[in-house]
Amino acid sequence: MPDLPTPQDATEAALFSECWDAVLSYADLCTSGSLTAHQLATEAFTLGMREVRAAGTVPARGPGRRAARLPMIPELLTAVRNTAAGWEADGDGHKLDPDLRLWLNSGQAARYTGPPLQRPVALRGLRDMQDADASLLWLAEVEALPLPTVARRLGLDPATVAEELDQVRGLFRDRCHRAHVDTPMDAQCRSYARLLDAVTRSPAADTPGDLSRHLATCVQCAEAAACLRLHGGGLPAALAGGVVGWGGLAYLERRRRAAEVRLGVGRPGAAEADGGDPKEKEGRSRVLRNGLLAAAVLLSVLALGVSMMPFGDSGGSGASGGSGDDKAVAASDDRQPVVDPTASGTAATAADPTPSRTPSTTPSPTASKGKSDRKNPDPEPQGTSAATTGSGGPSRTTDPAPTCRVDYNLDSQWTDGFQATLTVTTGKALSGWQVAWSFRDGQQVGQMWDATVHQNGSRVTATAADYNKSVAAHGTLTFGFLASWQGKNRVPYAFTLNGAACATS
């Protein structure tokens, strides 16, 4: 397995770091385990960077020669797909995902490497754009990065990057329309080309019934329609599916989740929308929450200490009718309705260190005489007896509150399989994580995304990927999986985060 190429300067080192996450994410989709995913990603990254360096082009905006290649990230993803195809051809296909192997040996894979005019419209349209324009479109639509981050990476003005993105979307549409028209097609597809262009320009335009039926049966025209229709939110899927090929939609979902995890919020871009102010507000609110929590803990400790203090005067009889030694009174009062089984008098403790019920049923004569004038038993000596033991009775012991919460969502289920998503909220910052749980009915995980899976019997462990192992305090981590089931498919139990038990929603 080749070593990763060495960055030539600081700029290339930052670029390597940004692109490696994307390459490893797609390689993990293409393989059957984390080790083979890393091997595939390393080979593909080395191959892709060699080709990029050989091309010798630097992203730049403005007039000039159109790029002869894809932007950096889709170029490296193409290298992953080509490397996987090489594994299949060399007899190493058993390392790949079974569905990918079927795809590689079908006519669908040939479309991405065959004659240029037969390739997907999105691939041709993106390749036909200026490199910086294509990079802006890919980073914003597929990688789901917030626009201020995209502007900083490409050297654009954050105040005008949204405007430029709208223009780039229009350029992509024009390139795709021209690519569709240039595609060899039969007479029926040719007759719908102009109508397809017209109905996809406006969100208010209705699609005629005959065109709708044609799009349901013609792959080329349906792909073109997805690229030409900029409204409706279908452009990212059209780009990912048309450029990456197999696993494009799954890769798109992974990148969106990875962007949310990096930002530590529920929606990409929310953390940077106001130039850092939300982070400052979040920090202040976190300090306030921590202060309130500390105050609550202190008050609880004080209240517990007060409740465990002995009651009554140190000499004579007080309002409670106690003697001079409340500890002996509490341990020897046979009329007390409920007595802590670990409580005992001083003499009983010295004779038998093991907690027993004997002191409660056989009081000493001295203690009985001290309590003989008391008519109404006072429940307060219960606290006194617990304090007497020095270690606290079982009733005082409480389990620590969980620092994480798991939301298990069954997305869909069919005859012998299902898809589920786990969202874990952590109370503290993480630099790496493992989420584990146990199945009740023998379910078996077959594929997992945004984490690597290991299953031993009913116990399943999901380990963070390289791109989402860091989670902010009070942040969330999310991953999903496909699994099989028979008979029953009950919700799993015994969720843990890095070995600590989690509460469930």
Automatic annotation (TrEMBL):
Residues 397-505 form the CBM2 domain. Residues 324-337 have a biased composition (Basic and acidic residues). Keywords: Carbohydrate metabolism, Membrane, Polysaccharide degradation, Signal, Transmembrane, Transmembrane helix. Residues 340-369, 383-398 have a biased composition (Low complexity). PROSITE patterns: CBM2 (PS51173). Residues 316-404 are annotated as: Disordered. GO terms for molecular function: hydrolase activity, hydrolyzing O-glycosyl compounds; polysaccharide binding. GO terms for biological process: polysaccharide catabolic process. The chain crosses the membrane at residues 233-252, 291-311. Pfam families: CBM_2. This is Cellulose-binding protein.
